[in-house]
Amino acid sequence: MEAKAGDISVPLAVLLKREMSNEKCEKPDLLYGEACQKKKGEDFTLLSADSERMQETSTESFSVFAIFDGHNGSAAAIYTKENLLENVLKAIPPKVSRDEWISALPRALVAGFVKTDKDFTAQARSSGTTVTLVIIDGWVVTVASVGDSCCILESAEGSIYVLSADHRLEVNKEEVERVTASGGEVARINIAGSAGIGPLRCWPGGLCLSRSIGDLDVGEYIVPVPHVKQVKLSNAGGRLVIASDGVWDALSHENALSCCRGLPAEAAATRIVKEAVKVKGLRDDTTCIVVDILPPEKVSPPVKKPGKVGIKYIFRRKSSDTLSEDHIDRGCSEPDVVEEIFEDGSAMLSERLSTDCMTSIIFEPYNCAVCQLEMKPGEGISIHGTTFKSTGIKRPWDGPFLCVPCQEKKEAMEGKNCS
Ligand SMILES: [Zn+2]
C-alpha cells in the first residue's frame, strides 16, 4: 500500500500503527553538551537531564536546559538560575497526570518568571538577565523566553523552527508600542544634530530589550512575562540549539546548524561557539547548548536530507513525503511532523494566567496565581477586576486571583503606576 503525496485522508490502520509506535518509543534519548567563551562573564547555563516531579503515584523525570545572559552585572542571572525552575514547578499542583502537567506548564512558566522577577527586584534595583528556558518531557518541548537569547529546533527531516521570541526593541514593533504605551521612551542614541545611532533603546537606561528578569532601575514596563511555545516532535527527533546573542550576532540559524552537522552534541556546541568567534571576534559572552533528541538507542546525530532546509514559522505543517509501508513498519520513524501545541507571547497577565476550563481545574482556585500564596475565598483580587474597565464590564468574582503585592506588580507592569 502506498499513499500518494497530497492525499489528505490517512487510513485508520496507519493511525493505529502510529499510536502503537508512539507508545513503543515513549521517551527519546537525550545527548547534550555546552560550550562558552567568556568576555564579561555574565552568561550562565543550566543543564539537567533528570529533574524530577511527583506524578499521581510515581516519580517522573524531565529535562531542563537554560541560558541566562546577564547585563549591568550578573546578580539577576545568578539569582534566576538558582530560583526560576523551582518557582515554575511550585506553580503546578503536585500529583497531576503527565498530560495535566504538560498543559499546566505554559501558565506555570508565566507565574514562575513573574515571581522570580518580583522576588529579585525586591532585593536589587540594578542588573537584569535574558532567559531561554527549555523543558523537555518525552517528545514535548516547551520553551519560555524573555530577551534575545534564542532557541531553534532542526527536525530530523531538516526543517528549522524558531521556538523563542526576539524581544529586541529594534526588531519587535509590538513591543515598542507596548513600552511606549506604558510610559517608556524608545529611541536611538542621539548625538548633537546627527540621526540616531545604534539600535532602538528604552530610556531612561538605554536597554535594547523590552523583556527581562530584573532591570527595576530601567522601568517596570520592562516585563518578565515570557513568550511560551510548546511543540511535539515526531519520534524521529531533532536537534535543539540554544545560544546567547554572542552566537546569533555572528551566525544565521542555518549557519549555526550547518557548521556542526554530523557532530555529536558536545562537539557541535564547541564548533558553533568557535565559528561565531571566528566570524565576529570575541566581542560578547558567547554561549551555546546543543541537545539532540533521539529515538531510543540511536546514538549518532540525526541524518539530514540536503536541500530541505528552510525556516518554519508556520506550524501544523503536513509532510508531503510519501507515506510508505516501509515507513510504518520501522515503527519509530514516521514522516517528520512537528506539531504546535501552544504559543502565546502576550505581556498581559490577565490573558496569560487565564486558562480554559479543562486546564484551570488543575490549579488551586484561591491561591495567588503568581506567588502561590494561599488565600481564603474572597481575599484575592480577580485578575479581571480592572482589565475590562474600558468596556465597563468587571468580573471581580472570577478567578484566577492575585494577592495584593502581586496585583501591585501587575499594575506597575502595565504602566498604571506612572499616572
Ligand atoms: Zn501573590
Could you please describe the fold and organization of this structure?
It catalyses: O-phospho-L-threonyl-[protein] + H2O = L-threonyl-[protein] + phosphate; O-phospho-L-seryl-[protein] + H2O = L-seryl-[protein] + phosphate. Keywords: Hydrolase, Magnesium, Manganese, Metal-binding, Protein phosphatase. It is an enzyme of class 3 (hydrolase). The chain is of the alpha+beta class and 419 residues long. Strands 3, 4, 5, 6, 11, 12 and 17 form a seven-stranded antiparallel beta sheet that branches. It has eleven helices and 19 strands. The protein folds into two domains: 310 residues, 4-Layer Sandwich (Phosphatase 2c, domain 1), CATH 3.60.40; 56 residues, no CATH class. The longest helix is centred in the N-terminal third of the chain and has 24 residues. The N terminus is likely disordered. Helix 2 packs antiparallel against helix 3. The protein binds zinc ion (ZN). The site of zinc ion has 8 residues, from helix 11.
Tell me the CATH superfamily of the largest domain.
PPM-type phosphatase domain
Spell the H/E element sequence.
EHEEEHHEEEEHEEEEEHHHEEEHEHHEEH
**Oligomerization state of this entry?**
single chain
Cα Rg: 22 Å
Distance between the termini: 69 Å
CATH architecture heading of the largest domain: 4-Layer Sandwich
Number of helices: 11
Largest sheet: 7 strands, antiparallel
DSSP strand tally: 19
- Show unreliable segments: 1-7, 312-334
Q: Estimate the helix proportion, in percent.
A: 25-40%
Shape: globular
Attached small molecules: zinc ion
In CATH, what is the class of the largest domain? Alpha Beta
Which structural class fits the helix and strand makeup?
alpha+beta
CATH fold topology of the largest domain: Phosphatase 2c, domain 1
Tell me the fraction of residues in β-strands, as a range: 25-35%
Number of domains: 2
Mean pLDDT score? 86
Catalytic activity: O-phospho-L-threonyl-[protein] + H2O = L-threonyl-[protein] + phosphate; O-phospho-L-seryl-[protein] + H2O = L-seryl-[protein] + phosphate
EC number: 3.1.3.16
Domain PPM-type phosphatase: 31-293
Pfam families: PP2C
